[in-house]
Amino acid sequence: MRNFLIPIAVAISMFVLGVFILNTQLWYSAQTDSLAGAKYAIKNMNIILDEAHLATRTAINIAKNRCSLEEQYQLGTEAALLPHLRTIVILRHGKVWCSSLPGNRVLLVNVDSLPDSQLLLVPARGTVNNLPVLLYQTNVADNRIVVTMSDRHIRDALDIPLEGISYSLKVGNSALGRSGDVTTENETLSHFRLVDAQNYPYSIQYTAPPVFSLPKLIYRAGGILLFLLLLSCLAGYLLAKYLNKNTLPEEALRWAISKGEVIPFYQPIVNGKEGTLRGVEVLARWKHPQAGYISPASFIPIAEKSGLIVPLTQSLMTQVANDMNAIASKLPEGFHVGINYSASHIATPTFVEECINYKGSFCRQDLNLVIEVTEREHLDVNESIVQTLNVLHENGFAIALDDFGTGYSGLSYLHDLHIDYIKIDQSFVSRVTEHEDSTRILDSVLDLARKLNISIVAEGVETQEQLNYLNRNNITFLQGYYFFKPVPFTELIRILLSKSKTKVI
Ligand code: C2E
Ligand code: CA
Ligand code: CA
Questions:
Q1: For residue 94, what are the contacts with CB-CB under 8 A and spacing of at least 6?
Q2: 315 C-alpha to center of ligand 2: Å?
């Protein structure tokens, strides 16, 4: 597995940390703003209450006299000129003695039974006109001065334009907010904050800003969030690039196999005599997302050394069976499908079972499934490998000895192994030119192959001279760039469709 978990974790952590810092900053400023809002509401309320205090002083002077018409007029003028006041009432021995309203009327119900605390919130039902009101009361000798303030002015004082925060006036257990009537609560709920006023006995109550609110975060800092997301992704991407730069080739190959980046290419094999398409050899290609197609010469040795050759070949077998099944109706009878197998894979205990399952997965059971075993590397042909290949031969597989003539292992095993094809290595075929001498080595290799009485496939046919020579020598199966290069599956379909009715050579 390539190093992706760490970069992903780093990118997520960076983003989460960024969101945390951003949220904390927003929460902190929301707290500061809401507190400033509460202080501003106190300032507004104090202006109203200062008016009430002023009016009380006038009322105290009147209380010393008689509540004559002139004095009542003076009280009415005071209530009218001080903008936030509604009425001024003087109670004597609990009864209305003088009022700013004509005829000493009051707008309060049961005024004589109201508690005499300095500030009092009276709900709508306690007033004649059914509007809540704030009372400012002062006791002087036998008199109680009651100044009433309209709910409208109080609500205006609480109108602080801060989103999501609502303020209310709290006097004792009663509260009056921006809307509705006076409410009574015995204790302050945990999501409320209280700020006490200094000069008068009241508090401003407000809802505490939530510690985390996604809509608010997006609304307030959407742009920064997006920037943070891009920055985290970029950091993760750069880290992934850096970490994977030094990834071991095995790790990269393991990842590629699991992601299906190692795919089969197909090189057609033609029948030199009939000129028809006889089959294909499967050649692995690594379809690298950045580097393009990588040659098997660079990764097959790594796969063999690391043991990845087993999953690599298994993946190819599955893909080849799927590909052939997709074009089953287009394949000529007995079509060869050859796959290269490494000795280390053949030596695994499950190899026979894998091959039998592979064969079983083909729709067409008449296909000639070829197992190509190379002689180029030191083929440790021990008894067990010979036995394995013979069992597969008995089960309908064809065995091809690849790169014939290049091996170091000697030919002793040829007696015991049931070989169906010998593939003459391209290094011999490529020497064939128009010069007579050039065919000497190939002559002797072919001679040896003929003596073994096994079908021959010539690899690496590139020129007309090579083709003429092979035809003269009755080599049936030919493979090389002269006919076709290894091609992807889509190209093979095209070749099959165009050549199915005509001869290829
Ligand atoms: P090979 O099995 O001898 O495959 C034939 C190689 O010769 C292929 O190279 C093919 O592209 C190339 N070739 C075919 N015709 C011509 C031609 O006319 N001229 C020239 N110059 N070259 C030609 P490729 O595909 O690069 O494969 C190289 C080797 O990698 C293969 O040699 C085989 O030994 C190994 N290999 C490829 N795929 C696999 C695989 O799936 N498993 C294993 N174990 N080995 C593989
Ligand atoms: Ca081969
Ligand atoms: Ca070969």
A1: 112, 144
A2: 17
pLDDT of residue 505: 45
User: Does ligand 1 lie within 6 Å of residue 481's CB atom?
Assistant: yes
In CATH, the number for domain 254-495 is: 3.20.20.450
CA dist 249 and 245 (Å) reads 10
- Which pLDDT value is given to residue 189? 66
CA dist., res. 167 & res. 154, Å (int): 11
- Helix pair 383-394, 351-360: axis angle to 10 deg: 20
pTM recorded for the entire structure: 0.60
For 71, half-sphere exposure in the C-beta direction (CA atoms, 13 angstrom radius) is 17
* pLDDT for residue 308 is more than 50: yes
Pocket test for ligand 1, best of 285, 340, 358, 467 (most atoms within 8 A of CB): 340
In this predicted structure, the answer to whether residue 409 has a pLDDT above a threshold of 60 is: no
Specify the pLDDT at position 501.
Answer: 47
In this structure, the dihedral spanned by the alpha carbons of residues 78, 80, 124 and 54, taken in order and rounded to 10 degrees, is: -30
pLDDT interval class at 238 (50, 70, 90): very high
Using alpha carbons, select from 300, 309, 339 the residue that is nearest to residue 323: 339
Domain locations in the chain? Answer: 2-207, 254-495
Q: Is 272 helix (H, G, I), strand (E, B) or coil?
A: coil
Residue nearest to atom 21 of ligand 1 (CA): 460
Question: What distance in Å separates the CA atoms of residue 338 and residue 280, rounded to the nearest whole number?
Answer: 6
User: How many other C-beta atoms lie within 10 A of the C-beta of residue 297?
Assistant: 7
| Whether the Cβ atoms of residue 150 and residue 106 lie closer than 8 Å to each other | no
Question: End-to-end alpha-carbon separation of the chain, Å?
Answer: 47
pLDDT score, position 436: 76
Find the length of the chain. Answer: 505
Are 269 and 260 in contact by the 8 Å Cβ rule? The answer is no
Please tell me the distance between residue 490's alpha carbon and the centre of ligand 3 in angstroms: 23
268 touches ligand 1 (CB under 6 Å): no
Whether the CB of 460 sits within 6 Å of ligand 1 = yes
pLDDT tens digit sequence for 60-92: 999 998 889 898 899 999 999 999 999 999 999
Question: Beta strands 477-478 and 455-458: pairing type?
Answer: parallel
C-beta of residue 154 within 8 angstroms of C-beta of residue 45: yes
Q: State whether the beta carbon of 462 lies less than 6 angstroms from ligand 1.
A: yes
Q: Measured from the CB, is residue 100 less than 6 Å from ligand 1?
A: no
Give nearest CA residue, ligand 1 atom 4: 283
Give me the mean pLDDT over the 439-460 stretch: 87
Mean pLDDT rounded to a whole number for the chain: 90
